[in-house]
């Protein structure tokens, strides 16, 4: 019985259907239970949305069920419904969810519309669903491109984070919708941008020198850390700083090759400029003049997309690029990730641990892109962020309550000591005690304020989630066509580290999603979780 299928039931009725006995919740559940009993399956859980429409975002139990299905320890292999329209009446939702569930090993079954994938009829139905799903994906890519082009023409932002010196702002459109525009950021950031351009154009400093100057002055970068010279170069050559918004500048299907300017979608003066067009023109002139001494910026060309992320399971050092003397049948050298400590210091420092580049990169990409797809589903990311922060905030709230009690006790004690001091105004011991309590109260208030800033209300997630999902959708449509160096940058944005268990070859991918709307030395963590995959040697 170890191979016995474990299933969950999903039942739903809308308000108008409550009176229909044939589709009532008890009737649906009874039919599902009998179905599982006949099949010899174990029914481990039941999810019920009573009085809910078929819209996905209005079904909390449905969302809960999908969230559980995404987990590696979900505990079930099948979802059983009375009819497929209980699962979804929207064709797109039905196809997308069913296809995604199938990819993670969970099948959807209907009591009254049985389509066993092992039968010819079921095989045909599954094939049709897959074709429809592929059509949906292709059409979605086209519609996303069209929508982003129109956004640019109207001066609206196409997702992502704001460039350094700017912030995102919501505006209402004439059709009642909401769009995002760029507005000037904090004055100190705007002034830093102006200074960067001035140092390059008028002081003759290169990107590396400018980065060094800013770091020496402890001026934080956009991420709150040190300035890399690559960020300086990006700012100097970004048309956004003279007020222009550009879309369709690169061909991501051809290694991010720049397209002819005639194909660019440009909206001039789409937002407030930080520098003049003349200054931007002078940057181009200076860049050409410096070319014999300062080569144009070219991102690292390493084909290892997990560099800086993949860690040695023994010493936690970075796994670095290496290749063997052997070659494949096609004559290509075999590439590997090898423990950096071993390569630098030898076997005395760490064991020889290696992973085949193609195999481990394929496993990580499959897991992470699947997760990004699931995060883009309605309410999926919101539910995960709320759950994560609810657990994290539980301890913080306890600390707040403790600090508030300590503050009140100190105030009460100080009040009594003050009464005693009124009777003995020259008592230095009482004065010292009161002063100590004042310091203690102020310290507790500072801690309380710090913890309070870490407690983020769920009402504040909407803007962050919209930015993140916009970025994830863009990644899903362009990731595989991007060069390895850009894939590495994208993975660094959402992955903290990757490890492989040396015993069972399970890959652990540590996800860390930061708030894109908060730029400080201590970025707000919205979500941390671990994804699992398998490294097939």
Structure characterization notes:
There is one protein chain. This protein is α+β, with helices and mostly antiparallel strands. Among the domains are: 6-114, Rossmann fold; 166-290, Putative Large Serine Recombinase, Chain B, Domain 2 (Hect, E3 ligase catalytic domain fold), CATH 3.90.1750; 380-458. It has 15 helices and 16 strands. The protein has helices spanning 25-39, 60-69, 84-87, 91-103, 120-154, 187-201, 207-216, 229-236, 277-290, 340-345, 357-375, 380-423, 428-454, 461-478, 484-494, and strands at 6-13, 42-50, 78-81, 107-110, 166-172, 178-184, 245-247, 250-251, 257-258, 265-267, 319-327, 333-339, 354-356, 495-500, 506-514, 525-534. Strand 1, helix 1 and strand 2 form a beta-alpha-beta unit. Helix 11 packs across helix 14 (461-478). The longest helix has 44 residues, at 380-423. The two termini are 30 Å apart.
**How many strands, what sense, and barrel or not for the largest sheet?**
4 strands, parallel
Radius of gyration: 29 Å
Instruction: Report the CATH superfamily of the domain at 166-290.
Output: Putative Large Serine Recombinase, Chain B, Domain 2
For the largest sheet, list the strands in their spatial order. 2-1-3-4
The shape, in one word, is globular
Number of separate strands: 16
Domain Resolvase/invertase-type recombinase catalytic: 6-155
Pfam family, one: Zn_ribbon_recom
InterPro entries: DNA_bind_recomb_sf, DNA_bind_recombinase_dom, Recombinase_CS, Resolv_N, Resolvase-like_N_sf, SSR_resolvase, Zn_ribbon_recom_dom
Domain Recombinase: 163-293
């Amino acid at each position: 019985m170890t191979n016995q299928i474990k299933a969950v039931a999903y039942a739903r009725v809308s308000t108008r259907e409550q009176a229909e006995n044939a589709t009532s919740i008890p009737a649906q559940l009874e039919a599902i239970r009998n179905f599982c009993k006949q099949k010899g399956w174990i029914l481990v859980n039941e999810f019920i949305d009573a009085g809910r429409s078929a819209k996905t975002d209005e079904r909390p139990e449905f969302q809960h069920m999908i969230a559980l299905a995404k987990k590696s320890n979900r505990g079930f292999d099948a979802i059983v419904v009375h009819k497929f329209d209980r699962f979804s009446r929207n064709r797109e939702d039905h196809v997308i969810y069913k296809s995604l569930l199938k990819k993670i090993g969970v099948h959807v079954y209907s009591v009254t519309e049985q389509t066993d994938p092992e039968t010819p009829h079921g095989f045909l139905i599954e094939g049709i669903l897959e074709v429809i799903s592929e059509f949906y994906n292709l059409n979605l890519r086209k519609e996303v491109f069209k929508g982003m082009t129109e956004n640019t023409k109207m001066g609206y932002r196409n997702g992502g984070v704001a460039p350094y010196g700017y912030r995102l702002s919501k505006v209402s459109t004439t059709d009642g919708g909401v769009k995002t525009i760029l507005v000037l950021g904090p004055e100190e950031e705007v002034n830093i941008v102006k200074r960067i351009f001035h140092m390059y154009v008028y002081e003759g400093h290169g990107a590396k020198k400018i980065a060094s100057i800013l770091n020496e002055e402890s001026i934080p970068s956009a991420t709150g850390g040190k300035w890399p010279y690559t960020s300086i170069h990006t700012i100097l050559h970004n048309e956004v700083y003279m007020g222009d918004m550009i879309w369709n500048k690169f061909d991501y299907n051809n290694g991010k090759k720049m397209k002819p300017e005639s194909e660019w979608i440009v909206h001039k003066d789409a937002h407030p400029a930080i520098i003049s067009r003349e200054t931007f023109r002078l940057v181009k002139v200076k860049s050409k003049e410096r070319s014999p001494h300062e080569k144009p910026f070219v991102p690292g060309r390493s084909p290892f997309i997990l560099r800086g992320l993949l860690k040695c399971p023994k010493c936690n050092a970075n796994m670095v690029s290496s290749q063997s003397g052997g070659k494949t049948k096609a004559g290509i050298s075999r590439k590997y990730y090898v423990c950096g400590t071993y390569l630098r210091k030898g076997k005395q420092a760490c064991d020889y641990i290696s992973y085949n580049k193609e195999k481990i990169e394929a496993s990580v990409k499959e897991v992470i892109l699947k997760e990004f797809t699931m995060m883009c589903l309605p309410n999926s990311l919101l539910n995960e962020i709320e759950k994560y922060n609810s657990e994290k905030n539980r301890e913080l709230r306890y600390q707040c309550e403790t600090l508030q009690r300590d503050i009140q006790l100190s105030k009460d004690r100080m009040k009594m000591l003050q009464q005693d001091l009124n009777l003995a105004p020259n008592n230095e011991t009482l004065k010292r005690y009161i002063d100590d309590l004042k310091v203690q109260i102020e310290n507790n208030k500072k801690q309380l304020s710090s913890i309070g800033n870490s407690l983020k209300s769920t009402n504040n997630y909407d803007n962050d989630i919209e930015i993140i999902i916009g970025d994830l959708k863009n990644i899903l449509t362009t990731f595989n066509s991007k060069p390895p160096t850009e894939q590495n940058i994208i993975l660094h944005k959402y992955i903290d580290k990757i490890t492989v268990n040396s015993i069972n070859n399970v890959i652990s991918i540590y996800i860390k999603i930061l708030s894109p709307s908060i730029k400080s030395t201590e970025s707000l963590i919205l979500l941390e979780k671990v994804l699992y995959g398998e490294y097939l040697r």
